[in-house]
Amino acid sequence: MTTRIERRFAELRREGRAGLVTFLVAGDPDIPTFERLLEGLPAAGADLVEIGMPFSDPMADGPTIQAGNLRALANGISLARTLEIVRRFRDRDGTTPLVLMGYYNPIWAYGRLRFLDEAVSAGVDGLIVVDLPPEEDEELCLPALERGLDFIRLATPTTDDRRLPKVLQNVRGFLYYVSLTGITGVKEAVAEAVAPQIARLRRHTDLPIAVGFGIRTPEQAAAIARVADAAVVGSALVAEVAAHLDEEGKPAKGLVAAVHGKVRELARAVGAARS
Amino acid sequence: MTIANSLRTGPDERGRFGLYGGRFVAETLMPCILELEAAWEAARRDPAFQAELDLWLADYVGRPSPLYFAERLTAELGGAKIYLKRDELNHTGAHKINNCIGQALLAKRMGKRRIIAETGAGQHGVATATVCARLGLDCVVYMGERDIERQQPNVFRMRLLGAEVRPVSSGSRTLKDAMNEALRDWVTNVETTFYLIGSVAGPHPYPAMVRDFQAVIGRETRAQMLEKEGRLPDVLVAAVGGGSNAMGLFHPFLDDREVRLVAVEAAGEGLDTGLHAAAMLRGRPGILHGSRSYLLQDEDGQVIEPHSISAGLDYPGIGPEHSWLKDIGRLEVTAATDREALEAFQLLARLEGILPALEPAHALAATKKLAPQLPKDTLLVVNLCGRGDKDIYTVARHLGVEL
Q1: B244 with B199: CB under 8 angstroms?
Q2: Given an 8 Å threshold on Cβ–Cβ distance, is B288 in contact with A79?
């Protein structure tokens, strides 16, 4: 049996193009607006959707996504509600792969096995948990794999050839290459520096490789799309959400259209990158 | 040699103390943490490193610190015989420098020239800045904006020492947010930077490494008490925020089961007001800043902002080893409120001529309640881990005095 993630990357290969992975924070800026954002992402050109599970202390994130986390928490998001949102999305869309990204403590507090079971039944395809390196695989990675949930690992510029096999050991779905040492949304990815790293990773794995951190503009996304299987854009989209809030922090008119417009631009650039 | 049933052998090879500890960090940091672990393992076994450290502790820090019989405090409380372990007499005025010297020497050994640190009360920041000045290392200290407001003297001291103090405006703008920001810096500058963590928190090997550097407090106390009284103390009392001064005092006594170990958390405005920093008494196990430990968090696993008059105790977690020792019943945990700490601060000033920092003032407040219940031949040691000069503005404000 193939998974949604495998099927989507197989389609992309057939089409001869890279994919666009969009990241938004669940419940940002509020739950109803987020659901409208999520619902329209596939039509706007997102090939995979990644949703952040908000945490009060997102240590790997820069100011943009930190602010998104805090907005969502202030407006009542929780892990239980995030799973409900995924369930409603999955009722309407059976094909777009959906990956949850976050930090371990909310999952641990929820009950890790309960979370995994509910994530599977809600239609989640994969998990990215920033603060669970391979050394802690027993916590969540192995029980996730047992349940058929992909565990997507981050490889970074500091993951050398000696360590790479350990990082790749239990990865399923795709490998997420962090294009730079740092946090989200601060520095910019340089495709020339990423290309040799992707080539290095490909010597160790046949998994699709998505590249994220520091990809903001259609041009940057296109440059990454020429060397990787997918480009992940997060902070730029969360910044678009933030740019469309009124003085009280409520969503202003045009927020949803603006974010989807940005996704469309990025998708066009990614789709045309190799032609 | 490993002693059967010893409590002093932890952590295991995964950095765990039972359920607690571990390495819950981003992949970017993992190679660096493994490198640090290897470097630390080599250094601790290297007699030359230990000899260098001992020399610094003696000639620069001023160790050993005295174990002082607090005669008037003992008479006032009318119970246990109270000794103060005078780590506030160390250079820079707190126990923090014991660990800073150790880690900075390790950083040099590893070829890292840039040091980052987080600080709450500023004591760890000052100690780090001091050591970096002396060793010629670059130093950046992250400090919450709220702590900067209430610890102005320490901010100025750090700047005088050549450190860059970077204000942190995220979250509750206190110690936990400073630690988040330090981790973000580390992940960005991992190749060049050594993260000098000030407490027995963070990912393995930090909790064990910081403990080992601070254990000099307990080793000295042990020898000094044997010399003065001919036997071990009966009760050890220490304040806990992250827990480094307490673990430093307690660890050499873990296997002496007859010695009571009392950790005092910050009860803030009261344990049932929601405004406190009592991770062990009011928190649940959780994962923050690289390790699992008791943590103040809500039902959804979001970290609750702590509260304490003492910036050094204003942290939502506690070290993993404390968490484990609490669960197995080796550690007694109690708490003191802001008000009780202020009273103890003034009591020690008047009776012994010592201004304690607000952190050990919590340990003194607990001692005020505990000592009268104990027989007069009970030997009780309070870890006086910092001096109160840095806190006079805060204390004055609470007493309605304008300086």
Answers
A1: yes
A2: no
What is d(CA A253, CA B80) in angstroms, rounded to the nearest whole number?
Answer: 70
Cβ B334 vs Cβ B390: under 8 Å: no
Q: Which two tokens stand for residue A114?
A: 């309960």
Ramachandran angles phi, psi of B284, nearest 5°: -130, 160
Q: Residue A24 in contact with residue A100, Cβ under 8 Å?
A: no
In Å, what is the CA distance from B145 to each residue of A186, B10, B33, B301, B357? 21, 36, 28, 25, 20
Instruction: Give residue ranges of A with CB < 8 Å to any B CB.
Output: 55-57, 59-60, 62-63, 66, 73, 78-80, 103-110, 130-136, 153-160, 163, 167, 178, 181-183, 186-187
CA distance B274 to B286: 18
pLDDT digits (tens, 9 = 90+) for B186-231: 999 988 999 999 999 999 999 999 999 999 999 999 999 999 999 9
What's the DSSP call for residue B272? T
Whether B22 and B204 have beta carbons less than 8 Å apart is answered as yes
What is the pLDDT, as a whole number, of residue B153? 87
Contact, A67 vs A242, CB < 8 A? yes
**What's the 3-state SS for B344-400?**
HHHHHHHHHCCCECHHHHHHHHHHHHHHHHCCCCCEEEEECCEEHHHHHHHHHHHCC
Q: What is the mean pLDDT of residues B376-384?
A: 98
Please give the Cα distance from B103 to B128 (Å, whole number).
Answer: 9
Mean pLDDT of A26-51: 98
Sheet harboring A150-151: ordered strands across? A150-151, A126-129, A98-102, A48-52, A19-25, A230-233, A209-212, A175-178, A154-155
Nearest to A207 by CA among A1, A25, A13, A65: A13
- Which phi-psi region, left, alpha or beta, contains residue A218 (left: φ > 0; alpha: ψ -120 to 50)? alpha
Task: Compute how many other C-beta atoms are within 10 angstroms of the C-beta atom of residue B34.
Answer: 16
Count Cβ–Cβ pairs < 8 Å, chain A vs chain B. 118
Catalytically active residues of A are 50, 61
Q: What's the average model confidence in pLDDT over A175-179?
A: 94
- Over 80: is that where the pLDDT of B148 sits? yes
Portion of chain B with pLDDT greater than 70, in percent: 99
Which tens digits make up the pLDDT trace of B241-275? 999 999 999 999 999 999 999 999 999 999 999 99
Identify all chain B residues contacting A55, using CB atoms and an 8 Å cutoff.
Answer: 301-302
Given an 8 Å threshold on Cβ–Cβ distance, is B301 in contact with A107?
A: yes
pLDDT per residue as tens digits for the range B234-247: 999 999 999 999 99
pLDDT of B1: 45
User: Which distant-in-sequence residues (6+ apart) come within 8 Å of A43 by Cβ?
Assistant: A260
**How far apart are alpha carbons B280 and B381 in whole angstroms?**
22
Interchain contact, B31 vs A160, CB within 8 Å: yes
Q: Does the interface ipTM go beyond 0.85?
A: yes
Give B 167-226 residues with CB within 8 A of chain A. Answer: 170-171, 176-177, 180, 183-184, 187-191
CA–CA separation, B85 vs B224, rounded Å? 10
Is B299 an interface residue toward A (CB < 8 Å)?
yes
Tens digit of each residue's pLDDT (9 = 90 or more) over A229-245: 999 999 999 999 999 99
Q: Most B CBs within 10 Å: which of A25, A53, A56, A201, as the mutation test of the B interface?
A: A56
DSSP string, A70-118: HHHHHTT--HHHHHHHHHHHHHH-SSS-EEEEE-HHHHHHH-HHHHHHH
Inter-chain touch B284–A109, beta carbons under 8 Å: yes
DSSP state of A127: E
